[in-house]
Specification:
The structure holds 2 protein chains of 2 kinds.
Chain A: E1 2-6, E2 9-11, E3 32-34, H1 36-52, E4 55-61, H2 66-76, E5 80-84, H3 94-106, E6 112-116, H4 127-135, E7 139-149, E8 152-159, E9 162-169, E10 172-176, H5 188-194, E11 199-202, E12 218-224, E13 233-235, H6 239-252
Parallel strand pairs in A: 1-4, 1-6, 4-5, 5-11, 6-10, 7-10
Antiparallel strand pairs in A: 2-3, 7-8, 8-9
Helix pairs in contact in A: 2-5, 3-4
Chain B: E1 5-9, E2 11-12, E3 15-16, H1 18-34, E4 38-44, H2 51-56, E5 61-66, H3 75-89, E6 93-97, H4 100-113, E7 117-121, E8 123-127, E9 131-138, E10 143-149, E11 154-158, E12 175-178, E13 191-197, E14 210-214, H5 225-234, E15 237-240, H6 242-246, E16 267-271, H7 277-283, E17 288-293, E18 306-309, H8 312-327
Parallel strand pairs in B: 1-4, 1-6, 4-5, 5-12, 6-11, 7-11, 14-15, 14-16, 16-17, 17-18
Antiparallel strand pairs in B: 2-3, 8-9, 9-10
The chains are: A alpha/beta, B alpha/beta.
Chain lengths: 257, 328
């Protein structure tokens, strides 16, 4: 089975966010990782490959540093990597990212496309579903269980307050939710092998696109940071008195309850 | 002729989702500022009877697609129908709740319409130059992006609990328009085989006004009942930190944080939660935060409005008893 996994390089979830002098998010000194939800997608792709055979191609877009994250995916066991890198892609909106990824994916044979349900940086949860639309194939979001049955898949997805089982024909885009599996760590032989695996760099031109085709449809006006919260009251005393006092403060001061 | 602000109203078993009512309420305010009509769209089987309630929350017009074919949500069927309605009605903006359905539907619809979209907004403002400026948490709430859409219609999903719900006016009568559902064959590929809603009398985590969460300090799965008992007295949802989920004490769907649910309730009670940055990212926008932790140095106290240093196994049952007194 030919499997494509789309991944994104993101800030580590422990990273503190600082705005630079230009008002943008400062990337200096921040540890970059594979988006945690994309790890579930990579793991699922590898499990499918181990079960039925096939090839896993991992695709991403961004600057040169994204190669490190693609190498991690290769070290986990993916076979090939594709990185779309172009100066014109400095701040793509979700429409642009989806169009570019769709073009890159369309050059690769695929029966299923896996990716994370959300990226922990911009958290917009749009690109995977938009890419499915651009490719003209169905998608299932926030998947907890994937069961391939020939030319279709039986998929359990998370909905508000429960789950839903969906039957979808392949090819389809599946977005992974935490709980789908437990991702493996790359091991030493995997890391050594990854160095020799193919990592293809593509420009927009090589995808038949130009910067002019890709005018963003949404734009960021500015960034801001939340007002820092400060420590409030610590309620002292015996447990019973503290509970009573907290209840009173909630009612009389915070005016809740 | 102005074509209006549209709100896609979500229902489950003919009950309108709270976030949809919040959007109608805020949509009414925006529509007044823009001198545009507020239009609601509702899809489902048997939904015609909900038009009155929707009008009461401020809709000038309710487009009803009451059809067996849209009885259950599927990405394809809803996208197909809404794409046609939007192309016909040409709204200025389309607002959708950032629910499981909204998150799945809105990007597909935006791409089919070829427009931009802003996800998971917690703020939106109208001004004549920007039209609609949205505020949305990024990096799990550690920063905000202020964004706009350059083409029409403007699509946005709005996080539950971001706007207050108006007091409905039952005498308000909106125009009701019935539309039929025609779904393109390509949009009928995915089939819903089964829907399992967990039986719970507690509110949905992302929509709850009050959340009581337990972390590593809960010590084991057998202790969550003390949070549940407290939750049921005050109508709260139960949440958890990543540490508790990763330890296997509680299901992942209860996780609050950057790799779980992002919530902004009126009251968040953190029990035995140290306050790791990735947890704070998911609940830092709560209006009032209470921390109960035996470690007086725990980071959570640095942002809690009220804190009790002590044994949660002693304090929570006492607090539950206090809340019970308030309730009676």
């Amino acid at each position: 089975m030919n499997i494509v996994v789309c991944i994104k390089q993101t800030f580590d979830t422990e990273a503190k966010i600082v705005l630079g002098a230009n008002g943008k998010i400062d990337t200096a000194g921040v540890k970059l990782i594979m988006n945690p939800y994309d790890e579930y997608a990579v793991e699922e792709a590898l499990r499918i490959k181990e079960k039925v055979g096939g090839e896993v191609t991992v695709v991403s877009m961004g600057g040169d540093r994204v190669q490190e994250t693609l190498r991690t995916a290769l070290a986990m066991g993916c076979d090939k990597a594709v990185l779309v890198s172009d100066p014109a892609l400095e701040s793509p909106d979700e429409w642009v990212s989806a169009e570019v990824l769709a073009k890159a994916v369309a050059q690769i044979p695929y029966e299923i496309i896996l990716t994370g349900r959300i990226a922990v940086d911009d958290g917009s949860s749009q690109v995977a579903v938009r890419m499915a639309e651009a490719l003209g194939i169905p998608s299932v979001s926030s998947v907890l269980k994937l069961d391939l049955q020939g030319s279709k898949a039986l998929v359990t997805r998370e909905i508000d307050g429960g789950t839903e089982v969906i039957e979808v024909p392949l090819p389809a885009v599946i977005t992974a939710q935490k709980g789908l599996n437990e991702p493996r760590y790359p091991n030493m032989p995997g890391i050594m092998k990854a160095k020799k695996k193919e990592l293809k760099m593509l420009t927009l031109n090589e995808l038949g696109l130009t910067g002019a085709d890709l005018g963003p449809r949404a734009s960021i006006i500015r960034y801001s940071l939340p007002n820092p919260r400060s420590a409030g009251k610590k309620i002292a005393g015996e447990a019973a008195d503290a509970a009573k006092e907290l209840s009173r403060l909630l009612r009389e001061e915070a005016k809740i309850l | 002729m102005a074509k209006g602000i549209w709100v896609i109203v979500e229902q489950r078993n003919l009950e309108i989702r709270k976030v949809s009512l919040e959007l109608l309420s805020q949509g009414r305010i925006l529509a007044n500022q823009m001198s545009e009509p507020l239009v609601a769209v509702i899809l489902g089987k048997g939904v015609a009877g909900l038009a009155g309630t929707i009008s009461g929350y401020g809709a000038d017009k309710v487009i009803v697609v009451d059809d067996e074919k849209v009885a259950d949500y599927t990405t394809g069927s809803y996208t197909s129908v809404l794409n046609q309605l939007i192309r016909k009605g040409e709204p200025q903006a389309v607002l959708i709740g950032n629910t499981a359905i909204g998150k799945d539907l809105a990007p597909r619809l935006a791409h089919r319409l070829g427009v931009g979209m802003v996800s998971d907004c917690t703020g939106m403002e109208y001004d004549e130059t920007t039209f609609l400026a949205f505020k949305r948490p990024i990096y799990g709430g550690k920063a905000f992006a202020h964004a706009a859409v350059n083409v029409r219609p403007v699509l946005a999903t709005i996080r539950p609990n971001s706007f207050p719900m108006a007091v409905p006016d039952p005498s308000r009568q909106g125009e009701v328009v019935s539309e039929t559902a025609t779904i393109e064959a390509a949009d009928l590929q995915a089939i819903v085989k089964e829907i399992v809603i967990a039986a719970s009398k507690r509110p949905e985590l992302t929509e709850a006004d009050i959340i009581i969460s337990g972390g590593r300090g809960m010590k084991g799965p057998e202790n969550y009942h003390i949070l549940e008992e407290c939750a049921d007295v005050i109508g709260a949802a139960v949440g958890a930190s990543r540490a508790a989920v990763d330890a296997g004490w509680i299901e992942q769907k209860f996780q609050v944080g950057q790799t779980g649910k992002t919530v902004s309730p009126t009251l968040y009670i953190a029990c035995g939660i140290s306050g790791a940055i990735q947890h704070l990212a998911g609940m830092g926008s709560s209006k009032v935060i209470i921390a109960i932790n035996k470690d007086s140095e725990a980071n959570i106290f640095n942002l809690a409005d009220y804190g009790i240093v002590g044994d949660l196994f002693e304090i929570i049952p006492l607090l539950t008893a206090e809340f019970k007194k308030l309730a009676s």
